[in-house]
Each structure stands twice: as C-alpha cells, then as structure tokens.
Design brief:
By secondary structure, this protein is α+β, with helices and mostly antiparallel strands. The chain is built from eleven helices and 30 strands. The protein has a seven-stranded antiparallel sheet. A six-stranded antiparallel beta barrel has the order 11-12-13-16-15-14. One of its GO terms (molecular function) is serine-type endopeptidase activity. Belongs to the peptidase S1C family. Keywords: Hydrolase, Protease, Repeat, Serine protease, Signal.
C-alpha cells in the first residue's frame, strides 16, 4: 500500500538529517613545524547562494539507497599537484665539536654526515614547472628532489626563498605536470571548510579536512611576518609546504606550522596555520622575477603605548605604537609623522603596538600607499604614506671606515618575533679593517656608541656624523661584550 501523504514529510526530514550528519562526519580533524611557545529547530533556513557556499566539490555518492557527500572528485584534481620534497645536507662532524684549535690539529677525525629531511610542496605553474614550499623545508639543503603523486622523482632547481615569510620557489622539469589554481584567500571566512594535502611523517600523501578557525592570525613567537589562516585541520611534521585548498579545489594557503605547547610528538590539538595565497602570490612573483623580496618601510622607530604614556599623550586607551624617531627623507617624514604620534591603525587594521606595526610593514610591497590612523595630542588625524624600499644590507665602508669590509643586515624576523633587537653582521672580508678589529660574521650588534637603535635604518642613522670613538656591543654565541673599533 503506498504511503499516505502524512508519512511523506517525516521520511524526507529523516533523510535530510542523515545527510547532514554524514556531511559533518566527512570533515574531521594537516603537517608542519610545531611551535613550542605560546601565542600570544526552527523553521528551515533559506538556502545560501552558490557563490557564498562553494559546495560544488561535495558531490553525491550512492551507498545502497542513500546518497552521501564526497570530496573525491575534487581531490582527484588536487592531489596530482601536491608533491613530496626530499632534501639532503652535507654536515661535517668532529669529535671536538666546534673547537677550532683541535679541529685544525686533527682534521682526519672530522667526518661527513648526510642529513635528510622530508616536506611537501605544491605545483602552481605546470608550464614552467614552478613548485611552492616552505623556506624552512629547503633551508641549508645541498640537494632537493621532488616526488610526484604518480611516483616520478625529479631533481629540483632552487629559484629563491624568503625566510621572513617562510616561502620558497623551486623549478622541476615541466613534463606532464598538473598545477593548482591560486584562489582568493581574502574571500575566506571563519567557518569555511578547507582541505589539506601533504606528506606527514613521510608516510605518503595524506588528506585531512577542517574549517577555517581564524584569519589574519599573528603574534606567534619564533616565526616571521605573520598573517596566517588558522585551521583545525591536522598539520604535522612533513606537511610543511603542502596545500590548503577550498572546496573548489583552489589553493588558498601553504601549510607552515602547528601549535602544541608540548611539542609535535604530543599530537595535534587543532591549532594549525597556513600562509594565505594573498601573501604567497606577491612573494612568489618577486622571487621568480628577481630571486629576492623587496619590502616597504615607513622609516621610523616606535614603542608600545603603556598606561603612563597614554596619559601623557592624551590617549584614552593604552593601545597603539608610539613614534619615537622619524628618519630624515623617509616615507614617515614625507607623510608628516612626528615623535609622540600614536599610530592606532594602518589601512583599517588595528595596531596594538610596536610588533603589530612592524608586522604590517613587513607584509607590504615597495611603493604601497597606506592610510594611518594617528592620535596627535589626543586628537585623531589621518595621514597617508607611500612606502620606501627597506634596505636589505649595508656596507660598513659606507658607514665608517673603521667598519670597512663588514656587511650588515637586518635580523631574521623570527628572531624579532622572539624579542631580539639589533643588526646582524652578515659577512666580514678576510684581512679587512673590520676583521682586524675583531668583528666576525654572525655577530649581532645590539648597541653602539653612536646611539640607540633597533634595526638597520636606526643603525645607519647613528653615522650621520663620524664618532670620535666607535664601540660596538655585540652578542657572539652565548657571550656578550664591547668591541672597540679602531
């Protein structure tokens, strides 16, 4: 006997409930570097427009007389573009450790060891064979190879990398490759479903899924410039450099890190991070074109606004970056910024302090035009600045003849995020005046008799007049001391 009309509605509702539960089960708890330190039934709803909910990837699959959702068709297009990255590094090991005297006396006891590591990567240009991965995956490697999803292993050529955003570009032979299209990470919303593909722990290509937990995440210690997508999809060691895709199979992020205060071996706790494609695209284009990344800078120094300063500057809240120094000829000087101004927002993004402003600057390209919300004498002011190029390195001879032969560079941003300040001695020419004065490559200069500074522009600004005496306070390994330059 056919069911009555009163039986039909409950059956439809039951089927819908089963499908909803099946869909929820499909999205479970991806693979990278573990960060050990902290972060700082109502009526039926109207269906959402297709553009707002890209569910085209979730296609039905029949199981018996039930229809269940599946990501398999989308993943069939995505997984061929995700690769495993293998690196090898030659390391010379001595039983005397780093002791230079004994290493020279007994060179025959020094042995060579090959360190190998695994990571993931994403093919983003099949015509040119371009592969994206993390900088930390290939850092220091002497040889890099890529294994495709079809089993082929190919030698990879290094194009360029950027430690401060943890992005690297390689090239492999462009033969029958499949690439992932770059999606719009700016369109992501908290709650959107995402899928990760990579090679966790070297066990082979693995797919995990989850949702976007947060966007624009920053403030993670030990990493560089930050504007992360946070997801609860599992990221484990080996997934670094792998793909984070939306349900249309578009690349929206490069997996880079997971957070666990007990370390990666304690398991995934649902705090994972990916570099958004909005940032990846700009860095990749610069690396492919020139092999390096040029960044914009305002050309100023700031400090956090505390309660005492807030009261003196007429600020209602102890939040913002207080301008303490403006360098001559800088973008900040042209824009009209002054010492004592409090920057509270940049391009509409809230600025809570010094680190937040520096992170914002580091993510902007040279020539970017930005709008700053400023408090001046307690009154709001809007200023516009066009960012100048941030210097990557300085020759010591251009600063002072006593530094001739040395090259100075900015500290890696991961050290700044960990609270370090100063400039790095990048290289010292053998026999140069700087070498004769005892300066060594790898030294970190944290202070000088020329005045206080926190970065390369500040260090340079101290040499507008040649000091009668030049003394550098340096950190070398675990030691700190003053080095007179003669």
């Amino acid at each position: 006997m056919p069911p009555s009309s009163t039986d039909a509605t409950p059956m439809k509702t039951s089927t819908k409930t089963l499908l909803a539960l099946s869909l929820a089960a499909t999205f479970g708890g991806f693979a990278a570097t573990a960060i050990r330190e902290g972060l700082r039934t109502p009526a039926e709803a109207e269906p959402l427009p297709a553009a707002s909910t890209p569910m085209t990837a979730v296609l039905p699959a029949s199981v018996g007389n039930q229809t269940l959702p599946t990501l398999a068709p989308m993943l069939a297009r995505v997984t061929p573009a995700v690769v495993s990255v293998h690196t090898k590094q030659r390391v010379r090991v001595s039983p005397f450790g780093s002791d230079p005297i004994f290493r020279r006396m007994f060179p025959e006891l020094t042995q060579e060891r090959i360190n190998e590591s695994l990571g993931s990567g994403v093919i983003v240009d099949a015509q040119r064979g371009l592969v994206l991965t993390n900088h930390h995956v290939i850092e220091g490697a002497d040889a890099v190879s890529v294994t495709l999803a079809d089993g082929r292993t190919l030698k990879a050529d290094f194009i360029g990398s950027d430690a401060d955003t943890d992005i690297a570009v390689m090239r492999i032979p462009a033969d029958k490759l499949q690439a992932l299209p770059l999606g719009d990470s700016n369109a992501l919303r908290v709650g959107d479903f995402v899928v990760a593909v990579g090679n966790p722990f070297g066990i082979g290509q693995t797919v995990t899924s989850g949702i976007v937990s947060a966007i624009g995440r920053s403030g993670l210690r030990g990493l560089g410039f930050q504007n992360f997508i946070q997801t609860d999809a599992s990221i484990n060691p080996g997934n670094s450099g792998g793909a984070l895709v939306n349900l249309n199979g578009e690349l929206v992020g490069i997996n880079t890190a997971s957070f666990n205060p007990r370390g990666s071996m304690a398991g995934n706790i649902g705090l994972s991070f990916a570099i958004p494609t909005s940032l990846v695209r700009n860095v990749m284009d610069q690396l492919v074109a020139t092999g390096e990344v040029r960044r914009g800078t305002l050309g100023l120094e700031t400090q956090d606004l505390d309660a005492r300063l807030a009261a003196g500057l007429g600020a209602a809240d102890a939040r913002g970056a207080v301008v303490t120094r403006v360098f001559g000829g800088s973008a900040a000087a042209t824009a009209g910024l002054r010492p004592g101004d409090v920057i509270t927002a940049a391009n509409g993004e809230r600025v809570d302090g010094h680190d937040a402003l520096r992170n914002f600057e580091g993510l902007q390209a040279v020539g970017s035009r930005i709008t700053l919300d400023v408090l001046r004498d307690g009154k709001p002011v809007k200023l516009t600045a066009t960012l100048h190029e941030q210097p990557r390195a300085l020759a010591g001879a251009d600063l002072d003849t006593r530094l001739a032969g040395a090259t100075f560079a900015e500290l890696p941003e991961r050290l700044r995020q960990a609270g370090e300040r100063g400039v790095l001695v990048e290289a010292v020419a053998r026999g140069s005046r700087a070498a004769q004065n005892g300066l060594q490559a790898g030294d970190r200069i944290v202070a000088a008799s020329t005045g206080e500074f926190e970065d390369l522009p500040g260090f340079r600004a101290g040499f507008t007049r040649a000091p009668a005496q030049l003394v550098l306070r340096i950190v070398r390994g675990n030691q700190r001391g003053d080095l007179p330059m003669r």
